[in-house]
Write a structure and sequence with these properties.
Order of helices and strands of chain A: HHHEEEEEHEEEEHEEEHHHHEHEH
CATH class of the largest domain in chain A: Alpha Beta
Structural class of chain A: alpha/beta
CATH topology of the largest domain in chain A: Nucleotidyltransferase, domain 5
Oligomer: homodimer
Radius of gyration of chain A: 23 Å
Number of domains of chain A: 3
Helix content of chain A: 25-40%
CATH superfamily of the largest domain in chain A: ATPase, nucleotide binding domain
Largest interface: A-B, 48 and 47 residues
Strand content of chain A: 15-25%
Chain lengths: 394, 394
């Protein structure tokens, strides 16, 4: 009961700060005495700050203004991508305070090495956060792979990294401080849900980098499927007799809209470093594609149009099956939205005809490729706001 | 609170009958006095019966045995198919007591006429049920069409019947007694979930007759989508540049695995009455296909194999997106499972490779084409068991 009331008070300040203790009582229906006790505990746990005077213009005795603390507890998000490492720290208000992104060719490199570098990045970023007065209370790692519901802490399969059955905790300097892995598309979708006031309650979020993932938010909650494998958009058959895929099938979406496929079709395989050794630092392939497209390069435009049509086809299946309010193009491909969205919308318009479907129901994410690492960082914060007793008592 | 306790007591007897009042107290943790009061009310509402002596072999004073009533409240399921009308009454134990199925070509006939005949069938069946001591407490109508979440009572679109924006209540002799429409695939899936002890908590149920629908049961609940349109399997693009579809797109599943497509491919269009007038009574096309397939007829076997491959392709998308525990082939196509399942399983085996997938995770329904009308009848019973105050007090 007290746990729930702590969450109600913290949630109320998070949504409407600054508030006085009296304001909190008014909003929550709790007595002033109860609010004071709960607020004291939340201050003790580092979740709330109380300033000397309220910035309100109201007449009368000034209250003290409660705000969610911008020092103290924080969430660390980490990301291992095929071509980069990322890190982000958000404070309890959900504001990003530290960002880091390092280009790094992670595909096929030894797991220990990739995780050791990730741990080193985490340590750097936590030190930087500590200098801002922030203590990391939880760590979540975004990976481009399958994270099953059970057992927790396992990356079952991350084909574009070459990972099979990897437990990050097994390779982390301090296993107790190891991050909890989660699928990057899932985290990107959550970030989008938390970020976009106008996000539907039920939407499909497409997140593409080397692979193509999707995540389903249903009624405001992540839908992970029976085993945690939901949203595997990349292996939807879009042209069943088409291009052979590394998975053993033919015509999977990834063969038309995956990064490698698009770069090849655009004639950019060499420039993007696909032919180089794993340890070389390749050019940013998404930026390269965007640059060519802006310049009107015909092969790049053709490749993006082909990818957009394939993405549209796969999303026709998603719309037919799931009936979402909307679709969001996120991850790196949000930066290619100008060229992908028209073809995607054309496929949807042609093929979704037995139900109402507005072209604007497909939009691109404002978060783009920051989404997954931001979602990873915010997950900890959202958990604390739902249950402030996760923080040590002051 | 009392409502909830009534449901607990009725649910307990439904799951474990016969029980004495003392058994119910033991199972529910309610006091004997409370149980007696609740049981009396449930007997008054017609939901429970109490026999003179318990059939238990236990020593001591014999209790009286409580069972869910096999007289009294009942659910009526109705079904309007493209080529038939159906009706079913189940008692409060969930047992079907009256079945009726009439072959009738409903496609393109005036809505008023189809609904008038359905109402007449309902009246006949209710009279038959009354002779068994059963009073219909709720009516649900299975339709092969889209039933949106809002407004209730509307069939937005049933292309294979030629219906647009039909409210059954507008055409029912007694509007207050009009049935609540629901998509037939949804009802088939619910019937399957209630019937099969081994049904997964999360599964996709494919229901094919003239059209092809699917329904998603997620965590034991029907997933209807943001607007009620989830599970539209028939218009998933399986061969995007393939056969033109009536919906305006190309290569929709329905063009390969829909009844008309299969009959045409099998060379049975004429025999199945596709070329006849709407009012003629056609042969049962599913029985016809099964008969030919049993006889080893090559065009029929080829058509079923092609349909199975197309169904398999569409389900690859469903597995990738939703990650269900299992897939169920229901409706009329369950009767063709011997010929459809091998090709469906082959597609799934070839294309679902990045996650574990057992061939047996796809199975056919035992309920077959009885599923939707049975689910329609059972829905009322399940609602009463969840809230016995839906029944008038005795």
């Amino acid at each position: 009961m007290r746990r729930q009331n702590l969450a109600v008070v913290l949630g109320s300040v998070a949504a409407h700060s600054p508030l006085s203790r009296a304001d909190v009582a008014g909003r929550t229906g709790l007595t002033r005495a109860a609010v004071s006790s709960l607020v004291d505990e939340l201050i003790g746990r580092g979740a709330l700050s109380e300033a000397e005077t309220a910035p309100s213009g109201r007449v009368g005795r000034p209250g003290r203004a409660l705000t969610v603390s911008d020092r103290g507890p924080a969430g660390l998000g980490l990301e291992i991508g095929v071509t980069h490492l990322g890190a982000c720290v958000v404070d309890l208000r959900g504001e990003p305070r530290v960002w880091r992104r390092v280009e790094r060719a992670n595909a096929g490199r030894p797991v220990e090495r990739v995780l050791a570098e990730t741990a080193a990045l985490a340590a750097e970023v936590e030190a930087e956060a500590a200098a801002l007065g922030l203590q990391v209370a939880g760590r979540v790692l975004a990976v481009p792979g399958v994270v099953p519901n059970e057992p927790r802490g396992l990356v079952a399969h991350a084909p574009n990294l070459g990972w099979h059955a990897v437990c990050p905790a097994d390779h982390w300097p301090d296993p107790a401080g190891a991050p909890e892995p989660e699928n990057e598309a899932n985290l990107g979708a959550l970030a989008e849900y938390w970020h976009a006031e106008h996000a539907g309650e039920t939407f499909v979020h497409v997140s593409a980098e080397a692979g193509i993932g999707a995540a389903l938010v249903v009624g405001g909650h992540l839908f992970r499927g029976a085993r945690g494998f939901a949203g595997e958009l990349g292996h939807i058959p879009v042209h069943p007799d088409g291009v052979p895929c590394a998975c053993g099938a033919r015509g999977c979406l990834e063969q038309y809209a995956g990064e490698v496929a698009v770069l090849r079709e655009a004639g950019l395989a060499h420039e993007a470093g696909l032919a180089q050794d794993g340890d070389a630092q390749p050019a940013d392939p998404v930026a390269l594609l965007a640059e060519r497209a802006v310049a009107g390069d015909a092969p790049a435009l053709h490749a993006l149009e082909r990818a957009g049509r394939a993405l549209g086809l796969a999303l026709v299946s998603a719309v037919n099956l799931i009936d979402p309010d909307g679709l969001v193009l996120g991850g790196a491909y949000a930066e290619l939205a100008d060229w992908l969205l028209p073809a995607m919308r054309a496929e949807l318009a042609t093929r979704v005809t037995v139900r109402p479907w507005e072209p604007q129901a497909l939009r691109s994410s404002e978060l783009g490729r920051r989404g997954p690492v931001l979602g990873a960082a915010q997950l900890t914060v959202r958990r604390i706001i739902a249950d402030p007793t996760l923080l040590p008592a002051g």
